[in-house]
Design brief:
Length: 138
């Protein structure tokens, strides 16, 4: 087990309706020493985030009929300084801009382990995080 990269981040919520992506992120983050709560649906994540504010949120942009950015806004009601990452299977400039307005980093799947580590370590901007390309997470 590796030591957590950022001691101010302990609890991470991940939300993805793709079970393989969810499982890979869950396993990787736990191996890095984070406490992870994983959800496969928007509805379950929303119910949790209305009462608990994690240190960080990683959410897929498309969650059935919902948008993962909605979860960012919900969670930030309780924790305005929460770090947020939105992931997507497509590189969409409109969604990227919407994520930026919400204060979230937007990354295109497949995520790279080094991108995730860099974001967790220092909250790098999307442009810096996107520049890393090594081991794939999913």
């Amino acid at each position: 087990m590796k030591e957590r990269l950022n001691l101010s981040i302990r609890d991470i919520v991940i939300v993805d309706d793709d079970a393989s992506v969810l499982g890979a992120l869950d396993a990787l983050l736990k191996a890095w020493g984070y406490r992870v709560v994983a959800f496969g649906s928007f509805e379950d994540a929303r119910a949790f985030l209305m009462t608990y504010a994690p240190d960080a949120l990683i959410a897929d942009i498309r969650l059935g009929m919902f948008n993962g950015l909605q979860l960012v806004y919900i969670a930030r009601e309780l924790r305005p300084d929460m770090r947020a990452m939105i992931v997507s299977g497509i590189d969409d400039s409109d969604l990227r801009a919407e994520a930026a307005r919400a204060g979230a980093v937007y990354l295109v799947k497949p995520l790279q382990a080094d991108q995730l580590r860099q974001w967790l370590a220092n909250g790098s901007s999307a442009s810096r995080v996107e520049g890393e390309h090594t081991r794939q997470v999913s």
